[in-house]
Amino acid sequence: MDQTVFELLERNREHAETFDTRFDDVQDGQRPDAVTVCCSDSRVLQDQMWGNERPGQLFTCANIGNRVIQQTADGEVVSGDVLYPIAHTGTEVAIVVGHTGCGAVTATYDHLIDGLSEPPGIEHSIGLLAPHLRDGVETLPDGLDRDEAINRLVEYNVDRQVEVLRESDDVPDSVTIVGVVYDFQDIYEGRRGEVHVVNIDGTRSVEALRTDYPDIEDRIDRLWEYEP
Q1: Binding site: what residues are annotated?
Q2: Percentages helix, strand, coil for the chain, rounded to the nearest 5?
Q3: Phi first, then psi: what are they for 103, rounded to 5°?
Q4: How far apart are CA 15 and CA 88, in angstroms?
């Protein structure tokens, strides 16, 4: 067996020793404060980015491209793993977490620009993102290099996923929906690993968001403010 497995099991032993009593209040049920939809990129630390060490606080979902959507026989719907805590555990905050240099956004960009051949599973995931990013690719400002284009599309993808949640009849209006970008590539001003708020309940204007949420104005930022 690969040594990695042994190392992971040893770290789990340490985890179990540390967390032994932290499950006392959630063994029989959960009422998470928020559902987070992150990219499954190994550099995106879903709980650590929020400093979370409390079981039951966050309902974490992950897939390539931080998608809130899935395809069914009846068409595109909000993914069940995202919807479950909203529908069944009283969760009233949903956070879509994109990240700088996203490989799924990059692959979708390449697919829309040049076409792309991937294994069927990856192709399916890219196919879910592509319709939502197509207009963004066409709207990108002239003169951007590849990395600049990708990181603007990261924001655009977060906006589109927020929009899907806001427009879904399955997501109550009472749910606060936030879009953020996790930066570990020095793209935004700030420390590596900081989360930058780019969208709250569909509002994308940095000026409007900073006016409405002055307590977090230093965490609100965008690379790209585009016309709808």
Answers
A1: 39, 99, 102
A2: 40, 20, 40
A3: -65, -35
A4: 28
- Which residues fall in the annotated binding site for Zn(2+)? 39, 99, 102
CB neighbourhood size of 57 (10 A): 16
Structure token digits, residue 61: 């979902």
Split at pLDDT 50, 70, 90, the class of 1 is confident
Residue with tokens 């032993």: 13
Give the architecture (CATH level 2) of 31-219. 3-Layer(aba) Sandwich (3.40)
Range list of β-strands (E), 40-139: 58-63, 69-72, 75-78, 93-99
For 199, the token pair is 């969208």
CB of 219 within 8 A of CB of 199? no
142 pLDDT tier (thresholds 50, 70, 90): very high
Q: Is residue 158 exposed (0-12), middle (13-18) or buried (19+ Cβ within 10 Å)? A: buried
Q: Which amino acid is at 6?
A: F
Q: Cα 134 to the chain's mean position, in Å? A: 19
Average pLDDT over residues 30-42: 97
pTM greater than 0.90: yes
Average pLDDT, the chain: 95
Tokens, residue 197: 């708020």
- 95 pLDDT tier (thresholds 50, 70, 90): very high
pLDDT value for 116: 72
Give residue-wise pLDDT tens across range 170-201.
Answer: 999 999 999 999 999 999 989 999 999 999 99
